[in-house]
Specification:
Elements lengths: L2 H16 L27 E3 L6 H18 L2 E7 L8 H12 L9 E7 L4 E6 L9 H18 L2 H13 L9 H29 L2 H4 L1 H6 L5 H21 L3
Parallel strand pairs: 1-2, 2-3
Antiparallel strand pairs: 3-4
Amino acid sequence: MTRVRIAYMAAALLMSAVLPWPAAGQSSFYDRPKNRPQLPGPMGYVSDHAQVVDAEWKERIRSVCQDLERKTGVEMVVVTVPSIKPFSSANEYATALYEQWHIGSTQQEHGMMVLVAVQERQAAITLGRQMLPIITPEVRREAGSQYLQPAIELGRFGEGLYRTAVVLSAPSQEVRVGTLSKTHFRGIGFWLALGTTLVAIVCFWWISRPDLRHPYRRIQKGEYWGTGQGGFGGNWGGFGGGTSGEGYK
């Protein structure tokens, strides 16, 4: 064996002794993270996955949620689940469910979710960002202490969830999702109609005055070109200023 081959073998043995090797059963550095827990799908305004809400209470809750969304655009859903596992709290479970179901408007986040976990005897209220100033901590405490918690302890889930939905919908009645855009377009329509009317009046007046349509007759009467044109142009300028200054507020 030559000295060169001996040197190569010695270097290979040294590298195998220094570099760490993964133990049997140990996860590799490039292993993918575990999949997220499977969450249930939506079933409408009332997603009773735990099957603890009677049909009568479901209909009452559905009526409150439907009326709220029809009047205000705010989406509220009520959910029951048998268990929140593997989540550690009802708040974490409700937050994950809220995001997966895309409750409320995507841009304006006008949404609410009321969740009850039967096995853990826990409840949570999740709100979209735009609903936080409306559903204050006082409102949430009232709904939890007076309705949700007693209903969970007594097993009256339907009644407790219905009364909670009523408490949350009451301060939300003044919300109008998309009000600004509708008002904006109504203002533009008003000024367009006004402008069309004024243009029609001016055109009718212009047609009814042949002396204005034939300037040589005005010259014969000793009038000047600029008098009538200047007055008309000034009136139009005033109208244009009103349109751009007030119509887009």
